[in-house]
Design a protein that fits this description.
The complex is a heterotrimer.
Chain A lengths: L1 H35 L3 E3 L2 E3 L5 H8 L1 H34 L3 H11 L7 H12 L4 H8 L11 H25 L3 H9 L4 H29 L3 H7 L6 H12 L2 H22 L9
Antiparallel strand pairs in A: 1-2
Helix pairs in contact in A: 3-7, 3-9, 3-11, 5-10, 7-9, 7-10, 8-9, 9-12, 11-12
Chain B lengths: L4 E10 L2 E11 L4 E5 L6 H9 L6 E6 L2 E2 L10 E4 L11 H11 L4 H14 L15 H13 L5 E5 L7 H18 L2 E6 L2 H7 L2 E6 L2 E6 L1 H6 L4 H7 L3 E4 L16 E4 L4 E2 L5 E13 L3 E8 L6 E7 L9 E6 L3 E3 L3
Parallel strand pairs in B: 3-8, 3-9, 6-7, 7-8
Antiparallel strand pairs in B: 1-2, 1-4, 4-5, 9-10, 11-12, 12-18, 13-17, 14-15, 14-17, 15-16
Helix pairs in contact in B: 2-3, 2-4, 3-4
Chain C lengths: L1 H24 L18 H8 L1 H34 L5 H9 L6 H15 L5 H23 L2 H12 L4 H12 L1 H17 L2 H6 L6 H9 L5 H29 L1
The chains are: A mainly alpha, B alpha+beta, C mainly alpha.
């Protein structure tokens, strides 16, 4: 069929540039990185090989395993706290605030988004630091000073701050497109407010929440800046460990292997939540 | 301008499903053809094949004697009024109507003049600067019509053009479509599933079912003398009386296979060619233009009929009437 | 119930806004540390920022990379979305997946992969290298937004244009693109924001000409300073103004 042939050529022509870009600058480098993760360092030279040494080193080095579990724990805690904080905020904005003020309320809720990313973590340092706002406040009422900066708690606070903004937006978008008739129908059939939420609203918004949670997970576990600025070097996360390999010893093969492991964790998270996550609807 | 369309043994399959099965049809230049049938009957597929949005699996379509094989929609002498109108929301009405001429390299002044003329033809003069979202459904429909006609196509294709309008508006637009077609003389091929709409505007109706043409002819023929039981039923309500066995009719129908079809309004108490004998009225309801009654034959209690009686006939349940059929056909049972 | 809702709002907004308020307030600190107590107001840190050539150069670099990489991502994303929405190609599900895949991969991994590859082909760390990386992260975003925006409405208008004699380029230029003006603007500005703010790719793929986040990062190493607050506040102010402008004059008009 002639028309189909012509259509196909046109379709390929349109898709080709994006596809080639993705292949050349995403798939190919990634494949190269996987290959490199099996290479060997001899002195400062990288020797191509098929050597699982880097992975073995990871599995047998408690510092590296600890970095992975640190990353994983922090990400999990951040994701859960962020959802628990963001859902009520999104719900209050969507259902309690008059429609004409909702846009303003949302803009206000994501206002810090508009400072620079690096600066955002830095400004938490001003709040949590040794001489920071919180410790000054506490000493004024005779407590403290607390060790807040350069702790896991600081990292978690910095992350939660960012992801509450992100999740509020995605959850709000989900809530607002629900027809108000769902809640009305449930109430009409005798459901209490809590039952309406638990049996109707929550299940309907769950896919959106899981998608948001997945994004949070991906962005959080791969982030270097926040733990580096707020957590310091007391306990390392996986991205910090990767950056250390690059900077200190130029050990690209080990950094690559650690990246492949990071990628594996993200893939596992995806498989875990794949039933719900709709990336095409992000 | 206008041209005829010849459809020669066209089939279209999607995988194993046959959307069109060996369809042939000659459409004369300047004719108003309506493709009528239930959803999934193949009428829209046929329209898409004529417009070039789809290609036949086998067979050939020619317009004005020229084969359309491999000709893209933009190069065909056809234009389409789409079901959802597909007006360009970012253009004014005049720009919408002038779009086809712009594609044909017509100068801005000339095409805007033509657009104004076409908008006037459909009763929207002076509104060229509006945008589609400011219009009602009926008005959008008119703009879509003006846009398709502005390039002076040989054949205009209309895909359920009135489907999105409410009933009253639809009846009004039918008359207008017909009048506009008479004025421009273009061949119109119009797809619908509404048999009243089909009868109101068609020169010829093509009844389709399951990928085939069931029947074709002027509205009156298709309605009163359908060729198949499907057509008879699809065109309107009909009493279907299986032949065979004894029927108390005078004269008794010949043959004892097939189905005798009589429309409710073809039955009355006035003397006619077929006497159905005395029938008892079971119930009767006033419908405005007529009264609708269910009756049972006195001689054959299994025979129940629906009859449309004149508005003013003084009939009550329990009464017995002698009924005559004025138009009827005997069709093969399916 | 109502009181709880308001209390919650107050608490969470305080949490969200606290660091920004601290940032802005102590950018006016008349002292060497941007922490309490507040020692009086001055704008000298702002003057220092505006006189800092490296900083201004980084700002220019960031703007250049953000606008260029977003434009490339938008064009590639638009063409791909149009192609995939319109033509049923074999393997189109796979292609959609591939185009969106970079969204699920940490920027660090993308940066590291590109750094390896660029080392091997001899492309030095530069704004060009960073720009290429930023297209990789923004292309899936533009593609996803535009693909989602191409509904049946869009398809049937394109069909009508073809029916009226428009060629493929004319369909793209006169119908598809103008109809998608709002989502295209959204995708573009979102991309600009992401690129503007992106740290790790820029950090690994630049050396001499750096972008603003990298420049700010190197300033952080020398400790807390009200000057950093001033930069952050300026970026914040400019962003808010741009967002306000877009909100008022671009997106509102689309409705």
């Amino acid at each position: 069929m002639m028309r189909n042939g012509r259509e196909h050529r046109l379709g390929w022509g349109l898709v080709a540039p994006a596809l080639l870009w993705t292949l050349a600058f995403f798939v190919l480098p990634f494949a190269g990185m996987v290959a490199l993760s099996f290479a060997r360092m001899e002195g400062r030279a990288i020797v191509p090989a098929f050597d699982p040494g880097n992975y073995i080193r990871f599995a047998t080095d408690p510092v590296m395993i600890k970095a992975l579990t640190n990353s994983f724990e922090i990400t999990l805690v951040v994701t859960v706290i962020s959802i628990l904080l963001a859902y009520p905020l999104a719900a209050i904005i969507a259902f309690r605030i008059p429609p004409r003020w909702q846009r303003l309320a949302l803009l206000l809720a994501v206002l810090p988004f508009w400072t620079s990313y690096v600066v955002r973590s830095y400004s938490w340092l001003l709040v949590l630091g040794q001489n920071g706002v919180i410790n000054r406040g506490l000493s004024w009422i005779g407590i403290g000073p607390l060790e807040l900066a350069a702790t896991r708690a600081a990292t978690v606070i910095g992350f939660v701050h960012f992801f509450v903004m992100l999740l509020t937006l995605t959850i709000y978008a989900n809530l607002i497109q629900l027809s108000p008739n769902y809640a009305r129908a449930a109430a009409d059939l005798g459901a209490s407010r809590w039952a309406t939420f638990r049996l109707v609203i929550l299940p309907l918004t769950l896919p959106g929440v899981v998608t948001g949670a997945f994004l949070t997970f991906v962005l959080c576990i791969g982030d270097y800046i926040t733990p580096q600025i707020l957590g310091g070097n007391n306990e390392l996360t996986l991205p910090q460990l990767i950056m250390l390999q690059l900077g200190r010893s130029g050990n690209f093969p080990l950094a690559s292997a650690l990246s492949v492991i990071l990628m594996g964790v993200v893939t596992l998270a995806y498989v875990f939540s794949a039933k719900w996550v709709r990336l095409d609807r992000v | 301008m206008t041209a005829g369309v010849a459809i020669d043994r066209v089939s279209r399959s999607y995988g194993t499903a046959k959307a069109l099965d060996d369809v042939s049809l000659e459409i004369a230049a300047g004719e108003y053809i309506v493709l009528l049938g239930p959803s999934g009957c193949g009428k829209t597929t046929l329209l898409n094949l004529i417009g070039g949005f789809d290609a036949p699996s086998s067979g050939q379509i020619s317009i004005g004697g020229r084969s359309m094989a491999g000709v893209a929609p933009k190069d065909r002498p056809t234009t389409t009024v789409f079901q959802d109108y597909a007006l360009f929301p970012h253009m004014t009405l005049a720009e919408n109507v002038a779009f086809g001429l712009r594609m044909r390299g017509v100068s801005r002044a000339a095409r805007l003049a033509r657009a104004a003329e076409m908008l006037a033809l459909v009763g929207l003069e002076g509104r060229g600067n509006r945008r589609p979202h400011e219009l009602s459904g009926g008005q959008r429909q008119r703009v879509a019509l003006a846009r398709a006609l502005a390039v002076d196509p040989d054949v205009l294709l209309l895909d359920e053009p009135l489907g999105a309008l409410d009933l009253k508006l639809r009846r009004g637009m039918q008359d207008e479509l017909k009048a506009i077609q008479r004025r421009v003389g273009t061949t119109f091929v119009h797809v619908t599933h509404d048999q009243e709409e089909a009868m109101a505007i068609a020169d010829r109706i093509v009844v389709m079912n399951a990928g085939r043409i069931e029947d074709l002819g002027p509205p009156k023929t298709v309605y009163l003398a359908p060729r198949t039981l499907f057509t008879a039923t699809f065109m309107g309500e009909v009493n279907r009386i299986p032949l065979g066995g004894t029927l108390p009719f005078d004269p008794p129908p010949a043959g004892n296979s097939g189905v005798l079809c009589i429309r409710p309004e073809s039955l009355s108490t006035a003397e006619g060619p077929l006497n159905l004998g005395p029938c008892r009225v079971d119930d009767i309801t006033f419908f405005g233009t007529h009264q609708r009654a269910h009756v049972t034959s006195v001689a054959a209690p299994d025979l129940k009929l629906t009859v449309h009686l004149p508005q003013n006939s003084p009939v009550a349940p329990g009464q017995t009437l002698t009924l005559f059929a004025h138009d009827f056909v005997v069709l093969e049972a399916q | 119930m109502k009181a709880i809702a308001w209390a919650y709002l107050a608490a969470i907004y305080s949490f969200i806004l606290l660091p920004v308020v601290v940032l802005v307030v102590f950018s006016f600190q008349d002292g060497r540390l941007p922490v309490p107590p507040f020692q009086g107001a001055t704008v000298k840190w702002y003057a220092q920022v505006l006189a800092d050539r490296d900083l201004l150069a980084a700002l220019g670099n960031s703007a250049l990379v953000a606008v260029t990489s977003s434009a490339v991502a938008l064009v590639l994303g638009f063409l791909a979305a149009h192609g995939l929405a319109r033509v049923r190609l074999p393997g189109s599900v796979l292609m959609r997946g591939l185009l969106i895949a970079p969204l699920t991969v940490s920027y660090l991994i993308i940066a590291l992969g590109l750094l390896n590859m660029f080392n091997q082909i001899g492309l030095r760390p530069s704004l060009l290298a960073t720009g290429i990386g930023h297209v990789v992260i923004n292309l899936p975003l533009c593609f996803a937004i535009l693909y989602a925006a191409m509904g049946d409405h869009q398809k049937s208008a394109e069909r009508a244009a073809r029916d009226l004699g428009a060629g493929e380029v004319q369909v793209l230029w006169l119908v598809s693109a103008p109809m998608l003006m709002a989502p295209m603007a959204a995708a573009f500005f979102l991309s600009v924001t992401f690129s503007w703010d992106e740290f790790i790719i820029a950090f690994l793929l630049t050396r001499f000409d750096v972008t603003l986040p990298v420049e700010i990062w190197s300033m952080l190493k020398s400790g807390l300073s009200p000057k950093t607050n001033a930069i952050g506040s300026l970026v914040f102010l400019v962003s808010i103004m741009v967002v306000g402008f877009l909100e008022l004059f671009v997106f509102r008009r689309q409705k």
